[in-house]
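Many introductory courses stop at the sequence. We go one step further.
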Amino acid sequence: MKNHSDNEQQIYSSAAQNSSPLVLVDQDGYDITVKSEQENGTLSQAKTVVNAATKKLQEALKEEGLVLKKHEDNIKFLKTQENCLNDTILDLQVTLGKYHSSNRPMTESGNLSQNESELENIQQILKHTNSAAGIVYQLKTRHSTRGSQHPLTKGILGIVATLGKVDDDNISSCLSRYVGTENMLAVVCKTLDSVKAIESYDKEGLVNKNSGIHGLGTSIGQAIHGRFRVICLECLSPYVGAFITNDPQGRLDIQKPRLPDGEVPHGFIDYAVNMIYIDRENLFFVTHDGHGLRETLFYHLFSRVHVYQTKEDMMQAVSLITDGALSLDGGIIMRPGVYGLGIVEEADVKFLKTSGPPCLTADYSAIEDQIKKKEWEKEGILDDLKREQVLLKQAKATFDAKREELIQFLAQSQSPAARDGSILGFQIKSEVKNETSSGN
């Protein structure tokens, strides 16, 4: 009996020494307590991922909002500038109107004198009755009301022969002969779109005579015969360089030719491009890139052509001539190595001659100049406004897309799947589980 009791006590003692806490496991054999701690850690990590992603999307949305506001502010600023310019132009026009009222006799006298000096030039152009130049000139003068309302003529600045003037008849003849009749009668367009509007074609590639300038010619009883030249200002390669400081005509600051001893060649007068006088109405015309008539049209026609007193002077300086030259006694070098010889004939169409000092006061001229400047400024602002409106539309689209992306993300992150870690945190949870399995 004693031995049995002692053995039983030893068994109970041994069992007590080897006992451990009760461990609960799930159906897969995982320790439920460990599994719970792992899932809590996974959810915590998933929440961190969600918060970080949300913050990133919010920052992206905020950045797009700032871009949107920037374009809105730019548009407000440009509209304010446009309104200010409109007010300024109106005030100047009122002032100009008052000047006309008080100085009508003198103004009409000046216009009469100018018309008389231009009569010969007009007749020269109108001799080419069935030319594009003749039609454009008539539309801008005799049919001014009809011409100004036609979208085609709005894109046409004029005819080469009417866009520049010179000091005297001899210089006019020399420069006009160098340019040639075809170029003197060329139609000058502001943009490439205005060139395209001049002429259209049918399916066979033939000229459609019922549209463009051909249609205009028909409407005034003058059909165009033959080909004609059109010059597009915005497509020309402009002069790149400085301008003569404080020169009201904006002449080009081109260095005079120099002989090896540093002297200017004998008889050199000037560059042809700088001998053209541009009227106030065209002086402040600029292309979209900010280039005026002198550095586009007239630089295209003359480039760096020298003008000399005599043929002998011109030939003495031939080694310095890079783009051509002419002399007042009829000599012509079209370009290096190409000479114009033979009997000099009178130019068929010539540049206008300046009519001398203007009869209007300096104040009147200054007001006109201010109006032109303000109108060009306004055109630039309107172009900027159109560009900003396009950018604003793009920015709105991007902002809306970013906002929708954030809304969808927030909706997904609040779903049951996201809360139990199966969305966004699923990869972390999977990695933790794999590590636990390998550890066991």
